[in-house]
Specification:
α3 packs across α4, α3 packs parallel to α5 and α4 packs across α5. The protein is α/β, with parallel strands linked by helices. It starts with 11 loop residues before the first strand and ends in a 6-residue tail after the last helix. The chain has a single domain, classed as Rossmann fold, CATH 3.40.50.300. The chain has eleven helices and ten strands. Bound molecules: adenosine-5'-triphosphate (ATP) and magnesium ion (MG). Magnesium ion binds next to α1.
Amino acid sequence: MTSPTTSATPVVELVKAGFAYEDGPAVLSGVDFAVAEGRAIALLGRNGSGKTTLLRLLSGGLRRGSGSLLLDGAEVTYDRKGLTRLRTTVQLVVQDPDDQLFAASVGQDVSFGPMNLGLPEEEVRLRVREALEALDIVALEDRPTHLLSYGQRKRAAIAGAVAMRPRVLIMDEPTAGLDPHGQERLLDALARLRASGTTVVMATHDVDLALRWADEAAVLSPAGLRTGPVAELLGDDALLDAARLRRPWGTSVSRLLRAHGLLAPDAPEPRTPEELDAWVAAAPLATE
Ligand SMILES: Nc1ncnc2c1ncn2[C@@H]1O[C@H](COP(=O)(O)OP(=O)(O)OP(=O)(O)O)[C@@H](O)[C@H]1O
Ligand SMILES: [Mg+2]
């Protein structure tokens, strides 16, 4: 096991997984990635490192070349039954909303998945309403998807996955292209989903977002995939260099505070300006 947090069986897990696109070199090899129930996991790595590939392997869109994909501890079979079981548990929101949205209106798009599950009409309506509310796009229900702004299309695509009520919601760079307000609203929506028990995995290039939002990080570098507590991995300079990631703002500030003897070595790091503010307010600093 690579993750220190998995005492219970992970919901979904890749074990020693390898993958190469047709006639291409290996994109991933020997990857262990366990998604434990209730976690918020940020997947980081440079362009072309294999984040999208890894997320598609986890959600069954691509079939692993070697190794195993386990769902609740049992090997996933890539037949109709196995894939249905996987896809009703794990939902992937792809990087580009235009690859996901296809129906004429937002409401039709979001209802497509639940309708396809054969759910009664009343249940479909309830789920669509719930998903639109979660993403704060109720007002867009009757709007044609092709007339929406990019950020609105992103939120509509996520609503489509949420309407499936997955246990694991996987998102490929969901905040890319969103304005700061849109990012905050998405994080609020994710917080509500997490509070209702949804496990969330997010690929992102934003180390500050990862530090603030995730409890676990998964970092792809030429050495492979490393998983662990987010503050620990994003505080590892060698790993950040290998993955070509910047050091998060909160980690830099905490180092400065520690270097000046202001923050105890074992004290938790302030990860955002708001947490720094709260720490300053509570810190026993001389303020006369
Ligand atoms: N359909 C495909 N056919 C062949 N090679 C592919 C295909 N999709 C991706 N690749 C290659 O696989 C590698 C990993 O790509 P992937 O899209 O998983 O990276 P990524 O980490 O998501 O990158 P980004 O940050 O740019 O989104 C890259 O070298 C890419 O060129
Ligand atoms: Mg990608």
